[in-house]
Design a protein that fits this description.
elongated, single chain, alpha+beta, 10 strands, 8-stranded mixed beta sheet, 24% strand, 190 residues
């Protein structure tokens, strides 16, 4: 009976690890929201995400097996999935940090440089100066729900790097690096 439990635990661990690896290898197009990019697919290049997910799955499986007293197989599987998700997130963060260091504190997505606190969005690149009609919140994402990362005072002229596909948000640039988004409804071309 003990060898059957051991076999079951090993089989579940391998299955959970394979499932976790499949999850983290999925293209970022399957991400529901860009904030999930650290769990599903990373926008910064590198292999740290996959490696960390596998290590996390193995460590999580071991921890889950030890913590689950009555059903080690289920504990192992749950631990592997949680560990893979945590490892994937940590690995993606490491990739973004390396990418930021490689380009002087910014990362590049589709040819546009972004500050590490700003999420990349599909943009039509634009060049030029714009002026804020009123005091504007500078957002980390192209959304009114995005984290506020600063502001642009009324009358302030700023560099524009791009416009979102729907035309509602403009990426504000500072020395060629996107530092946040402002609503296009409250700006005009200088």
């Amino acid at each position: 009976m003990t060898s059957l439990k051991t076999f079951k635990t090993i089989a579940l661990t391998l299955a959970a690890s394979a499932s976790a690896l499949t999850l983290v290898s999925a293209p970022s197009a399957f991400a529901v929201e860009q904030r999930l990019g650290g769990v599903v697919g990373c926008q910064a290049s590198g292999k740290k995400q996959e490696t960390a997910a596998v290590i996390g799955a193995l460590l999580g499986a071991a921890a889950g097996s030890n913590l689950a007293k009555n059903d080690r197989g289920t504990g192992t599987a749950i631990g592997a999935l949680v560990g893979a998700g945590a490892g994937s997130f940590v690995g993606c963060s490491m990739q973004k940090n390396e990418a930021a260091k490689a380009v002087g504190g910014a990362y590049v997505s589709d040819g546009v440089r972004y500050a590490p606190s700003v999420d990349a969005a599909p943009l039509t690149q634009i060049k030029g100066k714009y002026v804020a009609r009123s005091n504007l919140n500078l957002r980390a994402t192209a959304s009114a729900r995005g984290t506020k990362v600063g502001g642009v005072p009324a009358g302030q002229t700023f560099q524009a790097l791009g416009r979102t596909g729907d035309g509602k948000w403009i990426l504000v640039g500072q020395d060629g690096v996107g530092v946040g988004y402002v609503s296009s409804a409250y700006v005009y071309r200088a």
